[in-house]
Design brief:
Elements: H1 3-14, E1 31-33, E2 42-43, E3 69-70, E4 85-90, E5 93-98, E6 102-103, E7 115-118, E8 136-140, E9 152-156, E10 159-167, E11 173-179, E12 184-190, H2 193-201, E13 204-205, E14 240-246, E15 259-266, H3 267-278, E16 303-309, E17 312-319, E18 327-329, E19 334-335, H4 339-346, E20 351-352
Parallel strand pairs: 6-7, 7-8
Antiparallel strand pairs: 1-2, 1-20, 3-17, 4-5, 5-13, 8-12, 9-10, 10-11, 11-12, 14-15, 14-16, 16-17, 17-18, 18-19
Length: 359
């Protein structure tokens, strides 16, 4: 079955099964799409395979080789005052949006709430009509086709790009930026000209983003499990934890290995995540039976956590969308993932799994 047919089928079938998303249904193959307020969770399943979150293309370039364990990571990129605003990263770019905007409130089950949406496609809207007062920043690999004739050449961080500024018939102030050589695009629609300009003007191309996440997934050196290892899995009181979510691609080479989203936790939020990581059962998660899930290709990490505590930096890999090798890896030993940890890592970002964790 084609990916589009699969996604449409499972979306229509499971739209009202929010209570099953926690992963507590043994044998059920889950794929989760999260909302900022967690009010909408959709499960997708077909046979023994999960319907993947569809994305659009982009060119993948070389990945810098770095190891696991404790080492120095690049510092976050400095930027302008973000009071009342926050950074959003994708595919080697970052942009500021209002701090109260939601995530992925666009398309199926969408509302008129302001939101950031990644890689939206027309087939994901399920016949949804965008409200005329909707404020949105669409982060993708290109811009909407009907905007391109009105765009002009510009240069962003030394790279040729295109930019357009528009007034829509419904009264909204819109704009778009496209960087063809990087397969990057941003489309913005708001009710205020200054807000649209602020978002478009904050667009930056980065190698390491505001949270300290490399925009290309580093090479992972799997740990050798040492039964004699002692002490906490990560420092129990970190100053910060950067969460770097990468595209696993699922065969889409255009986005494979590129940063999908990042966020930086500090204070109580960082300590809470560290507590969960340190409470994780030792060792990797058991592999599901081959009849449920069969691994095709190499095991690829879905996310990297950069845990900073004083002068110590610990890099932790999280693997959950594959069939084998799932779990946490801090470069020295492994620990088991739970759905609670995955939710805390992924926050409002949708994710998919080919099989549930064993209870």
């Amino acid at each position: 079955m084609k990916e589009l047919e699969t996604e449409t089928l499972v979306r229509d079938t499971f739209r009202h099964h929010e209570h099953l998303v926690s992963g507590r249904a043994p044998g059920l193959v889950v794929a989760v799409r999260a909302r900022a307020d967690r009010r909408r969770r959709t499960m997708r399943a077909v046979g023994v395979a999960v319907a993947v979150f569809a994305v659009l293309g982009g060119a993948v370039v070389g990945v810098a080789a770095t190891g696991g364990g404790r080492h120095a990571d690049p510092a976050p990129v400095a930027g302008p005052d973000t009071t009342g605003w926050r950074w959003e990263s994708w595919l080697g770019a970052q942009v500021m949006v209002p701090g109260d905007w939601t995530q992925e409130d666009f398309g199926c089950l969408g509302t008129n709430a302001p939101s950031v949406a990644r890689f939206p496609r027309s087939e994901h809207t399920c016949g949804w009509t965008e409200p005329v007062d909707k404020e949105v920043a669409l982060l993708g690999t290109g811009t909407e086709g009907d905007t391109k004739p009105q765009m002009r050449p510009v240069t962003i961080d030394g790279v040729p790009a295109l930019r357009g500024d528009f007034r829509l018939p419904d009264g909204r102030y819109a704009g778009a930026i496209e960087v063809p050589s990087r397969r990057l695009g941003l489309t913005v629609r708001t009710m205020n000209a200054a807000k649209t300009e602020h978002i478009l003007g904050s667009f930056r191309l980065v190698d390491v983003d505001h949270a300290g996440c490399p925009t290309l997934r580093p090479v992972r050196e799997p740990s050798v499990v040492d039964s004699l290892s002692t002490g906490p899995f990560v420092p129990p009181y970190p100053a910060s934890i950067a969460i770097c979510v990468y595209h696993t691609g699922f065969g889409n080479e255009q986005v494979e290995g590129r940063l999908r989203r990042s966020m930086a936790l500090a204070g109580v939020d960082a300590v809470r995540l560290a507590d969960r990581l340190n409470a994780a059962e030792p060792g990797a998660n058991p592999d599901p039976p081959a009849r449920v899930c069969t691994q095709e290709g190499p095991v690829i990490a879905d996310a990297m956590l950069i845990v900073r505590s004083g002068t110590t930096t610990t890099r932790v890999w999280a693997i959950f969308s594959s069939c084998t090798g799932r779990g946490l890896d801090n470069g020295a030993r492994r620990a088991q993932l739970t759905m609670g940890i995955v939710w805390q890592i992924m926050q409002e970002t949708g994710f998919s799994m080919r099989a549930p964790f064993s209870e």
